[in-house]
């Protein structure tokens, strides 16, 4: 069992149950999945980019990404329907907890001038989306191989229902929010 999952079951669940006065254990806010996305906009110039980025994303998440293709053609961007435009990975279970643990304890503190993640990134249902400017902050990426830094988006999907409950859940799991 991953360290963060154990922490959730032994420490976080009892605190959330008490704070929100939850009677049914299935109602306790929890992380359901984490979705990691990155775009392949420059692939029009470099055909090998998809394979390179796919390997990097697989190293970061521990899971092979799926390719997202364009649904419509946009001539101004040189984009045709069916062309690959991004890669996405959906993490659940152990891999999800391992990735979240690595994100909050290793990756985020490595960001330059890091003062916490913004509180305004919650949606109305309590899901949290975080943009990472350079994927090179992940320890799996070897900078000596001439890696081009690229952005990625990490969406943490919860069953919390409200931003307040989700914030408390992520806070207890160790997410470093910025000070108000």
Description:
The chain is of the alpha+beta class. The chain has a single domain, classed as 50s Ribosomal Protein L5, Chain: A, CATH 3.30.1440. It contains four helices and five strands; from the N terminus they run αβαββαββα. The protein has a five-stranded antiparallel sheet with strand order 2-3-1-5-4. It starts with a helix and ends in an 8-residue tail after the last helix.
Strand order of the largest sheet: 2-3-1-5-4
Q: What gap, in angstroms, lies between the N and C termini?
A: 34 Å
Overall geometric form: globular
Q: What do we call the CATH topology?
A: 50s Ribosomal Protein L5, Chain: A
Walk me through the topology.
Elements: H1 3-19, E1 31-39, H2 49-61, E2 66-69, E3 84-91, H3 93-107, E4 128-132, E5 152-158, H4 163-172
Antiparallel strand pairs: 1-3, 1-5, 2-3, 4-5
Pfam families: Ribosomal_L5 (PF00281), Ribosomal_L5_C (PF00673)
Keywords: Ribonucleoprotein, Ribosomal protein, RNA-binding, rRNA-binding, tRNA-binding
GO molecular function: rRNA binding; structural constituent of ribosome; tRNA binding
Features:
single chain, 180 residues, alpha+beta, 50s Ribosomal Protein L5, Chain: A, 5-stranded antiparallel beta sheet, 5 strands, globular
């Amino acid at each position: 069992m991953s360290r963060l999952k154990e922490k959730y079951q032994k420490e976080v669940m009892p605190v959330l149950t008490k704070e929100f006065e939850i009677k049914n254990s299935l109602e306790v806010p929890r992380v359901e999945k984490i979705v990691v996305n990155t775009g392949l906009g420059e692939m029009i110039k470099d055909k090998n980019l998809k394979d390179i980025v796919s390997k990097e994303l697989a190293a970061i998440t521990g899971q092979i990404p799926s390719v997202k293709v364009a649904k419509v053609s946009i001539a101004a961007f040189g984009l045709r329907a069916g062309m690959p435009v991004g890669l996405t990975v959906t993490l659940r279970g152990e891999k999800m907890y391992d990735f979240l643990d690595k994100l909050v304890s290793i990756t985020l503190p490595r960001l330059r001038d890091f003062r916490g993640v913004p509180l305004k990134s919650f949606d109305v249902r309590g899901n949290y989306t975080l943009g990472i400017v350079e994927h090179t902050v992940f320890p799996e990426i070897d900078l000596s191989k001439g890696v081009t830094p690229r952005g990625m988006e990490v969406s943490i999907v919860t069953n919390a229902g409200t931003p307040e409950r989700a914030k408390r859940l992520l806070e207890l799991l160790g997410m470093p929010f910025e000070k108000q």
